[in-house]
Design goal:
The protein is an alpha+beta fold. It folds into two domains: about 190 residues, Bira Bifunctional Protein, Domain 2 (BirA Bifunctional Protein, domain 2, 2-Layer Sandwich); about 40 residues, SH3 type barrels. It contains five helices and twelve strands. The radius of gyration is 18 Å and the shape is globular. The N and C termini lie far apart (about 45 Å). It binds biotin (BTN).
């Protein structure tokens, strides 16, 4: 991972560049990093604010020999890698909000965008986008989201060395990915649940069909969130929003 690394001062989105490189046949582990994105993409067609030099804006090309149903595991794997590295490098206590937001002090500091190209029942390639708010200061997070988003600097009080941080993410990613390919998802699942936000606690879950109170139990190998509602019924959720507090 990161043997082929492209670093750009400014791009629209590192995701698009990696899709392009994938189509040109670039190998597994190719990485694109930018200092700034002017059209950063978040999940659900949202924008991802990516100001110059303030964060980790990168996309990794993966070519796993796996069926498409296993793609969500790669996202969960990446979330555990990010949580692990933040945990090791600071006194911060990161948690993972299902499916793949990294929170510190209940605010989002990082997100993951997984895009897949599949043919029949094989993954052709995956573009794994990682966005981490690192060195933004108070007032540099867009005001619309300032109540729920933050940066590592704002939460830790320290400035982070972005290049060093990227290096540890890539090396931890490589180790974790290799052991996932060799040994399967079980260990990742345990790691994920160790960092899982509100696991074992009561929250409100909104789905397309209904809103209900439930206790979060953990995740399944297919990436689903497992919860138990107040009637004791188990729910497996593939798409939902989690709320807490009032
Ligand atoms: C989310 O939480 O909505 C996912 C955010 C993913 C942002 C990263 S930044 C690098 C890569 N390039 C993009 O345009 N998006 C991802």
């Amino acid at each position: 991972i990161g043997q082929h690394l492209y670093h750009y001062p400014q791009v629209e989105s590192t995701q698009d560049i990696v899709h392009q490189l994938a189509k040109e046949g670039k190998p597994h582990g190719t990485v694109v990093i930018a200092d700034e994105q002017v059209k950063g993409k978040g999940r659900m067609a949202r924008e991802w604010h990516s100001p110059e030099g303030k964060g980790v804006w990168m996309s990794i090309l993966l070519r796993p020999d796996l069926p498409p149903v296993q793609a969500p595991q790669l996202t969960l794997l990446t979330a555990t890698v990010l949580a692990n590295v933040m945990d090791k490098r600071s006194a911060l206590v990161p948690s993972i909000k299902w499916p793949n937001d990294i929170l510190v002090h209940h605010k989002k500091v990082a997100g993951i965008l997984t895009e897949m190209q599949a043919e029949q029942d094989r993954i052709q390639y995956v573009v794994l986008g990682i966005g981490i708010n690192v060195n933004q200061e108070d007032g540099e997070i867009p005001s619309m989201i300032a109540h729920k988003a933050s940066s590592l600097k704002m939460e830790s009080g320290e400035k982070w060395d972005i290049q060093e941080f990227v290096q540890s993410i890539l090396s931890t990613f490589e180790k974790t990915y290799d052991s996932f390919i060799e040994e399967g998802f079980q260990e990742i699942k345990q790691e994920w649940e160790r960092y899982g936000y509100k696991i074992g606690e009561k929250v409100t879950i909104s789905t397309m069909r209904r809103d209900f109170k439930a206790t979060l139990l953990g995740i399944e190998a297919d990436g689903a969130l497992l919860a138990k509602d107040e009637q004791g019924e188990m729910e497996k959720l593939y798409s939902a929003e989690i709320h807490w507090g009032e």
